[in-house]
Amino acid sequence: MLNLLLLKVFTIKTFIRMKVAVYRKAHFNAAHRLYNPGWSQEKNNDVFGLCNNVNWHGHNYDLIVKVVGEINPETGYVVDMKVLKDLIKSEIEERFDHKNLNLDCVEFNGINPTAENIAVVIYGILREKLDPSLDLQVRLYETERNFVEYPV
Ligand code: NI
């Protein structure tokens, strides 16, 4: 009986120390243009092709936020999903949804709004708001087949 009890306590404590990943999906639409202002129009066309369209183009971005941490023994949560949901909504979706990333978003002043750079910007915004004990990774889909992750 005592052995069983000890086994149970050990198992629960081991379980609590284990790290778990939790994910939250989000979505936003945004317009952008990819170009390097220091290059000629010809070079920009060569490198960025249709993405250099001066009249902009849009994407339906899908975002997956991954948070890794230990399970809080009092709540059973790694992170409160409601808190994470609200954070992504207020800090990412409301900031970028239906915006022109080049023109409307100061975050991309002087930064080409590629999927890579958007992922890094999103990471930076969320990282500041999350408990430092939690690991964070973002995956951003620009199309169904093209996506990036940061950090790696
Ligand atoms: Ni594009």
Structure description:
The structure is a single chain. It contains five helices and five strands. The chain is elongated, with a radius of gyration of 21 Å. The protein has one domain (2-150): Tetrahydropterin Synthase, Chain A, CATH 3.30.479. It has helices at 2-17, 41-48, 81-96, 101-104, 115-129; strands at 19-32, 57-70, 99-100, 135-141, 147-150. The termini are far apart. 39% of the residues lie in helices and 27% in strands. The mean pLDDT is 93. Strand 4 (135-141) and strand 5 (147-150) form a beta hairpin. The chain has a five-stranded mixed β-sheet. With 152 residues, it is α+β, with helices and mostly antiparallel strands. Residues 32, 51, 57, 59 line the site of nickel (II) ion.
Question: How much is the average pLDDT?
Answer: 93
> Which of globular, elongated, flat, extended, rod-shaped describes the shape?
elongated
**Which CATH-level-2 architecture?**
2-Layer Sandwich
Count of distinct structural domains: 1
Rg over CA atoms: 21 Å
Distance between the termini: 47 Å
Task: Tell me the β content.
Answer: 25-35%
Name of the CATH class: Alpha Beta
**SS class:** alpha+beta
Give the CATH superfamily: 6-pyruvoyl tetrahydropterin synthase/QueD
In the predicted model, the low-confidence regions spanning at least 5 consecutive residues are: none
Beta strands, count: 5
- Total helix count? 5
Order of helices and strands: HEHEHEHHEE
In the sheet with the most strands, the strands line up as: 3-1-2-4-5
Give the cofactors and ligands.
Answer: nickel (II) ion
Output the CATH topology: Tetrahydropterin Synthase, Chain A
Report the major sheet. Answer: 5 strands, mixed
Helix content: 25-40%
